[in-house]
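Students often ask what a 'structure token' actually looks like in practice. Rather than answer in the abstract, let us consider Peptidase MA superfamily protein, a protein of 474 residues. Its sequence is given first.
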Amino acid sequence: MATVVSSRAVVGILLLILGLTYVATGSAVASPVDGGSNVTTVAGPTVTTTTERVGGSGILRYELTLTGLSEYERVKLVVGRDSTVVAADGMTTTQRDGRTWLQVAGDGDDASVRIRTTTAAAEGPSDGGEYFATESWLLGRVPLVELRWTAPGEGVERRRLFDDLRGTSEDETAGDRYALVGAQRRTTVAAVDGTIRIVSPAGTEFGPGEDALASALGDAADRLDVGDRGDEVVLFALGSPARRGGESFPVHDEGWVNADARLDDPNSVWLHEYVHTRQDFRLAADMRWFREASAEYYAARLAYEQDRIDRAAMEAHIDGAPTTAALTKPGSWDDPTVPYTKGARVLALVDRKVRLSTDGARSLEDVFRRLNEHDGAVTYADFKDAVAAVADHRMDGWLDRYVDGTAPVSSFYPGGPKRQGVLAPLVQAVDEMGTGAVFLVVSVFLSGICSVPLYRYLDRIERDGRDERPGRPV
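Now compare that with the structural description of the same chain:
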């Protein structure tokens, strides 16, 4: 019997090794319109600004007046490439690297600078953004201006000037990136630890209605628990000639949206651009896809959670034709919409896998929050680490296949389009079952396949052993 017991133990050990191996491997001029003035209240020289639209043109003119300069040893202004310095009083100017450098000349106590930005009505999109002009209003750019100063016995200090001059007057709302000049109306929405301002030219009608829009954005701020709260978000709602859609600059918590955009749509531009304002991370090249992918996914999910669309509409929007583009390699994208399509589907999968792994305690929002809190540019490796930390296990193999690799993702939701290939049913089943269920099924399957021949072999050994015992007839 000792031989039989040892052989059965071997069977158990072999099956255990097979199971463990699977787990290890699977898993001009002319009547300017004054837009008002703003005064800084922070450290350094006092700066007062006024904004004017020159007639009905696409020109915005900014006048900066600096006072209290005699208190400082040196004061400079650096004006970015997107603006033109047209006049400077009390300051010398130098051109360098496309920027204008201005330094206070002499011992005067004040100085002034006039800066111009131009927004032609027919101007198309550029790296600096999209801007629009009509007879009654203009959405233009706020110039990039940095103030630098040195106090006696101190080092050089600096600040982005218009970061501190964010303000509102009767006919002007200026943020860090955009300035809307002309008669306008404003709606303020109380959000979690902050506010959302919806600003539009007077007479603009909102497609979803003002109350519904305010409710949707306030709810989105509450639901989207990804950090980067406590700031003021500004969304400009524009009519023609603004194109359909929108644009945003996440680092400035600002964006514009075509006022006709709907809320009851899985591709809600209002929610998409709002999600962008909650992205406080910098992305490395191999994570560039995440910015649009996360905005696309959460716009659809928020619309569903707010009961503005049904689940079928959300699923149909996220599902779509498969692509073999590698998300981490922008050069492989055969279409600029890859982050919106494959990227959003991949994030839907990651969200589900995290929820299943943590019994619903965590989700993709926790990954999103970790990226917002990350110091420096977020790389693909950082993303994998964040997913692992949230899910409590590594998902590198799966992520390398669908994010860093070219494996297509055609569907995530049950009932959606099926994956392609001979092994598609198995892959679909594995993705939907989860690691624990797969291990159980595989273990039972291997037990059934391997145990029958092994036990037959052991029975034969045992029988042969009995036949050879002394005194047994042959």
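One point worth highlighting: The two ends are 21 Å apart (CA to CA). Ask yourself how you might have guessed this from the sequence alone, and why that guess would often be unreliable.
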